[in-house]
Amino acid sequence: MDRLFGIFGIIFILFLSFLMSNNKKRISVKTITSAFLLQFLLGVFILKVPLGIKIFQAIGGFIQKILDFAKIGSDFVFGPLTRNPEKLTELFGQNSHIFALQLMGAMIFMMVLVNILYYYGIMQRVVAFLGKLMNKLLNVSGAEALSNLASSFVGQVAAQSLIKPYLPNLTKSEILSSMTGSLACISGGVMAIYVGMGIPAQYLLAASIMAAPGALVISKIVYPETDEPKTMNDIKISRRRTHVNVIDSIAMGAQEGMRVTINVVAVLIALVALIAMIDWALVKFGLFLHNNLHLSQMFMGFDLTNLSMKMIVGKIFAIFAYLMGVPFNESATIGALLGEKFILNETIAYIDLVSIKNIISEKSFIISTFALCGFANLGSIAILIGGVGEMAPKQRKNLSRLGIKALICGTFASYVSACIAGILL
Questions:
Q1: CB-based contacts of 374: which residues, under 8 Å, 6+ apart?
Q2: 10/12 Cα distance (integer angstroms)
Q3: What pTM was computed for the model?
Q4: Mean pLDDT of 9-27
Q5: Are the C-beta atoms of 384 and 399 separated by less than 8 Å?
Q6: pLDDT at 265 exceeding the cut of 60
């Protein structure tokens, strides 16, 4: 019965996307069907086929090995602060690890490896091949296929930089699908962080890869192509080296990793503090309603004496969690995580998911891993508009106009992947 809810969830999400469509008559059934079929088959291969399971478990083990190497570097610099987390727990209790230090080593080392792959042209060849394959299979332009595939490996702005020469001439449909792909997937560096937190690598990798065709499914329903894309048949990717030599690429990768780490830490500090302030205001408001207006403590399913943002968004997003296949008694809890990710970011949501891992069912944990995977949050829209707008100034207005739609489309793409996981598991 739970699997049926996953099917209902997909139908519900596609229906909402259809209602949002700006041109329902121009929706390409072939593109939507092909992209969804690819997303579903990827899910089957990764989650049900023994060979696929072994491959992605091996990839997950490889990512974990990379994290082990990153930890060696962190241990050398920070000593016992990263070398003996058990000792910190013994001295200061649970959750006494220093998150920033764990984050820093993984991010810096992963960015270095990505830069090395780019320097030797390996990453460009992989992404270009997969992009051309998607272009042929799904009947989408080379530019949007390439940016969507790249989003599964690199950051949201970095993925768009691969199609920088084509950005000024992208159609609105291409812009939305490219933005959606960037918001529905996560980069390899960020993935390493979440693996280090305790999220299984094979599920994160599966979710990010499945979200690439999923982003095309949703975005092409919401904003069908009505123009003639410049790269409809093919796209050429520049392999010009941007670094002097491999040493330069390593140094630049380390610097980029540090900048990203500082940015993530700064955003986390701000958002966690903001949540605390909003929760304080909600508690005061709830107590006012209870004490002064004499409303009952439990009002419309909300505890007025203990109101919180997580409680409110949990109620709103619980319907999506339930339709993905999450048991009813856990849907509000998972819904709260979905709301956190949408309003704040996926890092905070994953931290909270890990903290309740032993309380919720394994199926709910896996479905949540898929649903939370992606950069689709309010802050990421600003990053995307700023980064891509810098590369293509004349597209800034279109980027701004399509920002909220891209956020919703990216969220829905991840939810469809989660529904597929719920059906298959």
A1: 183, 184, 185, 186, 207, 208, 211, 346, 410, 411, 413, 414
A2: 5
A3: 0.82
A4: 95
A5: yes
A6: yes
